[in-house]
Amino acid sequence: MYLTWIIRRVVYLILVLWAVTIVVFLMMHLAPGDPAQAMLGPMASGPALASLRQELGLNEPIYIQYLHWLGHALRGNLGRSIRQQVPVSSLIFSQFKNTVILGSVSFVLAVIGGLALGFIAALKRGSLLDRIIIVIASSGIAIPSFFLGLVLAYIFGIKFRILPSNGMYALQGGGGFGDLLKHLALPAITLAVGPIAVVARMTRSSTLEVMGQDYVRTARAKGLHDHTVAMRHIFKNALIPIIHLLGLQAGILLSATALVEVVFSWPGIGALMVNSILTRDLPVTQGSVLLIAAVYAVISVVADFAHMMIDPRVHQT
Amino acid sequence: MTNSTISSDVTSEIGSAAPGRSRSRSAQVMRRLLRDRIGMAGIILVLLLILMALLAPIISPDDPLATNLSAAFKPIGTSGHVLGTDLYGRDMLSRVIWGARPSLMIGFVATCLALGLGVSLGVVSGFYGGRVDTVIMRIVDVFLAFPYLLLAIVIVGALGPGLFHATLAVAITAIPFYVRLIRGMVLSFREEQFVEASRAVGASGFHLMRYAIFPNIVPYVIVAFSINVGYLILEAASLSFLGLGAQPPSPEWGAMLAENRNYLTIAPHTVLIPGIAIFLVIIGLNLFGDALRDAFDVRLRED
Fold first, then answer.
1. Distances, alpha carbon A267 to alpha carbons A105, A261, A290, B204, in Å
2. Contact assignment for A147 to B271 by CB distance below 8 Å
3. How far apart are CA B102 and CA B237, in angstroms?
4. CB-CB under 8 Å, A139 with B150
5. Helices (H), ranges, chain B
6. Does A19 contact B at CB distance below 8 Å?
7. pLDDT at B230 (0 to 100)
8. Alpha helices per DSSP H over A212-281
9. Which residue, A161, A223, B23, B303, shows the most beta carbons closer than 10 Å to its own?
C-alpha cells in the first residue's frame, strides 16, 4: 500500500524535476539579448562571441541545446563559472554544505521553539503568557529576516561585541567547532524567527482544537493526570497537521536563507546564487537554482511521507 | 432571444439567493470587523501608510534624492532632519515618506495581477475540469516546485533586475496560490443545489460562473487578498534588498536597507527607519487580514 504511494510520488517527483530543468534552461534563453553577449559583456570581440556561441551550442536548434545541456547536467557537469573559472558543480556543492549547516540548525530551533511556544500558549489560553506569545508570533511573521539580521548584528556584533556577525570562521586564529558555533548563532537565530512564529501559531490553534475534542474530555473524566492528558492525548494529536507545515517550512528555509546569508556574509548557496545574478554568471545561477529546487522537491516528498505515516487518513485522499 | 434574457434574469435571482450574496451577511461581517479592535488598529495603520504615500509631495520636508555630502550620517533629531540623514546626506524622513510609494505599490499591483489571473484560471479550471483543468494544474505544479522567493529570484534572474521585473516576478509567484484556492472552492460549489438550479433553467457556462459561483468565492478572495498583499510586499522588499528589485537611488524601503547596511556601525538609524516601515505595513496588513478572516468566518487552506 505504501509502496504504490511511494512509487507514484517518486515518478511524480521525477516529472517535476524534469519540468524544473526546462524552466532553468529556458531562463538563459528568455533573458533578453544574446546569451553569449550577456556572458562576455558589452566589450566582447566578434571572434570571442562566435567561439562562445559555438561552445554553448547556440547555433543549434533549441531542443538540441536543451538535450545537450540536460545530458551534461545529469552527469554532474553544469558548466564553468564565468567569473571564477571553476566548475559550477564543485562551487555549488561546497557552498551548499554551508547552507545545510545553517538551515538545519535553524530548522531545529524553529521546531523546538515553535512547538514549545505554541503548546504553552494553548494550555495557558487567555493568560498573560498566552498574549505575550501571540504578540511575539505576530511580530515574528511580520519582521523581515534581513532587517532582523541587521538589528541583531548591530546589538550583538557591534554594540556589545558578544558574537561575530560576519562569515563562518574568524579570519585569524579561526577554525574549529567552537568558532563555527559562535559564527552560526546570529544567522541561525535570525533565520529561525519566522518559522518559529509560523509554527507557534499553528501549534496553538491546532492544540486548542484538539483540546475541545471528546476523547480529551473522556481522558480527563477517566481521572488521568493533567500531565498525561496534555502529553499523550493533546500534544500527540495536535502534532498531526503541524508535520505537514514543518515540511513546508523546511523548504521555505532553503530559499529564505539567501537573505540571511547576504546579511551575515555566510558563504552559502543562496548568497552565491544572488551574487551570480548580479554579476550575470548564468551557469552558476542555473546550477544553484537547479540544486535548490531539487532539494526542495525531495523535502516535500519526504514531508508528505512523514505526514502519511503519522496520519493514515491522508492516504485515502 | 427572449428566452436567454429570461433565463439570465432567473439565474441572477437564484444567484442572489445563494448564501454569499445576502445583504444581511455583509452587514454582519462589517459588525464583527468593527468590533475587532486589533484588526481595526491594523487597517488604520495601513491606511495611514497609504495616506503617507499619497501625500508624499505635500508632507515630505525635502527632496528624497537631493544629496549633501557635507551633511552625511546626521543622527535622529538633527535640526532640519528629524530622522537624520543617510550616507549621501539625504533626508531620511523624506526618503521614508517617498519610499512608501514604490514599496506599497509593488505589493498591491503584484497582488492585483496575481489575483486577476489566478482567480480566472482557478474558476475556469474548476468549472470545466477535464483537459483544461489538467493542463492548468500541471503548470501550477511546476511553479509550486520552487519555493516562493527562489521562483521570484529565477524570474528576475531571467528578466534582469529592476522594479518592474520584480513586480512581475512577485506576481507570478502568487498565482498558483490563487488558482489552487479558487479551483478547490469551485469544485465544491459546482455540486451545490443553487448551481444545479441555475443550470436547470438553462444558464450558460459564463452565467453560472459569473452569477452563481463567483459571488460565493468573493469572501475567500477578499481574505486571501488581504493576507497576500503583506507577503508580496515583504517578498518585493526582499528582492530589492538583494539588489534585484528597485535600484538605488530609489527610496524603496528594501533598497534603502541594502544601501545603508554597510554603515550599520556609524549610522544604525539609516537601517532602523526603513526596516521599521516595512515591519509596520506588514504587521498592519496581517492583523487586518486575521480580523477579516474571523469576520467572514472562512478558512483558507494553509498550503
1. 16, 7, 18, 58
2. yes
3. 10
4. no
5. 2-17, 23-35, 37-54, 56-59, 92-128, 130-144, 148-159, 163-190, 193-200, 205-207, 214-241, 253-260, 269-296
6. yes
7. 93
8. 214-221, 226-228, 236-263, 269-278
9. B303
ipTM of the complex: 0.89
**Partners of residue B242 in chain A, C-beta under 8 Å:** 258-259, 262, 274
What is the rounded CA–CA span in Å between residue B146 and residue A66?
A: 20
- Neighbouring C-beta atoms of residue B23, cutoff 10 Å: 8
Give residue-wise pLDDT tens across range B38-95: 999 999 999 999 999 999 999 999 999 999 999 899 999 888 899 999 999 999 999 9
CA distance B257 to A146: 9
Q: Where are the alpha helices (DSSP H) in A81-221?
A: 88-123, 128-142, 145-152, 177-211, 214-221
- DSSP, collapsed to helix, strand or coil, labels residue B91 as strand
User: Is the model's pTM score more than 0.80?
Assistant: yes
Is pLDDT at B2 greater than 60 in this prediction?
A: no
Judged by CB atoms closer than 8 Å, whether chains meet at A142 and B261 is answered as no
Distance CA(A242)–CA(A248), nearest Å, equals 10
Closest of A107, A99, A106, A104 to residue A246, by C-alpha: A107
Interface check for A186 against chain B (CB to CB < 8 A): the answer is no
Of B147, B160, B287, the CB nearest to A32: B160
In sequence order, what DSSP letters do the residues of A199-222 get, joined into one string?
HHHHHHHHHHHHHTSHHHHHHHHT
The predicted structure's pLDDT at residue A183:
94
Q: Which residues of chain B are within 8 Å of residue A31 when distances are taken between CB atoms?
A: 157-160
Name the DSSP letter for residue B246.
S
Instruction: From residue A252, give the alpha-carbon distance in Å to each of A25, A84, B151.
Output: 23, 28, 11
Residue ranges of alpha helices (H) inside A44-87 are 46-56, 62-74
Are B66 and B90 contacting, i.e. CB atoms less than 8 angstroms apart? yes
Q: Which pLDDT band, with edges at 50, 70 and 90, does A42 fall under?
A: confident
Helix (H, G, I), strand (E, B) or coil at B156: helix
For A163, what's the count of Cα atoms within 13 Å in the CB-facing half-sphere? 21
> pLDDT of B132-141, one tens digit each?
999 999 889 8
Would you call B85 helix, strand, or coil by DSSP?
strand
